[in-house]
Design a protein that fits this description.
The chain has helices spanning 18-29, 49-57, 89-93, 120-143, 151-163, and strands at 6-12, 34-40, 83-86, 104-107. The protein has 172 residues and is an alpha/beta fold. It has one domain (6-168): 3-Layer(aba) Sandwich (Rossmann fold).
Length: 172
């Protein structure tokens, strides 16, 4: 019996930092069980340079990354999504497209490295801290027994993941 592969979309406003990092993390840590994508409501059209630098240092494949709009994933030929996670507060409050197949969704908001102001070293440290927060949440998500949880229990678990690690959020 073949295990199901789950399609996961990470959303943010600019699709230049948080959602891009989450896409990279899940595609590496998901062990083939997940295919991650990212998009934004108002994509900036480029990856934040500090984020790109961090991902390169961590040996993530960055050549295929691009900042894109979320409307790509509401098209008929788009991958059928199983999960949609917003990683910024702005995208969580926006009216999202109707996702075919009624994917489960949750808000996993984290601070925005692209908006952080400081020295290059401070921005690099801040970006690394946000990466760690996303990595921790995604690690918990990938460890969930998805096949054995009913929809209500799974929704509670993914909501709880978004509420975790609030105390260790980096200070802007």
């Amino acid at each position: 019996m073949t295990d199901k592969s789950y399609n996961v979309l990470f959303l943010c406003t600019g699709n230049s930092a948080r959602s891009i990092m989450a896409e990279c993390i899940l595609n590496r840590e998901g062990g083939g069980r997940f295919r991650a994508y990212s998009a934004g409501s108002h994509p900036k059209g480029q990856i934040d340079p500090t984020v790109a630098n961090l991902l390169t240092k961590l040996n993530h494949q960055t050549s295929i990354l691009r900042s894109k709009g979320w409307d790509e994933f509401a098209q008929p030929n788009a991958p059928q999504l199983d999960f949609v996670f917003t990683v910024c507060d702005n995208a969580a409050g926006e009216v999202c497209p109707v996702w075919p197949g009624q994917p489960m969704s949750a808000h996993w908001g984290v601070p925005d490295p692209a908006a952080f102001e400081g020295t290059e070293a401070e921005k690099g440290a801040f970006t690394a801290d946000v990466f760690r927060m996303l990595f921790n949440r995604i690690s918990v998500f990938t460890a969930l027994p998805l096949r054995s949880l009913d929809r209500i229990a799974l929704q509670k678990r993914i909501d709880d993941i978004g509420k975790s690690s609030v105390a260790d959020a980096p200070k802007a």
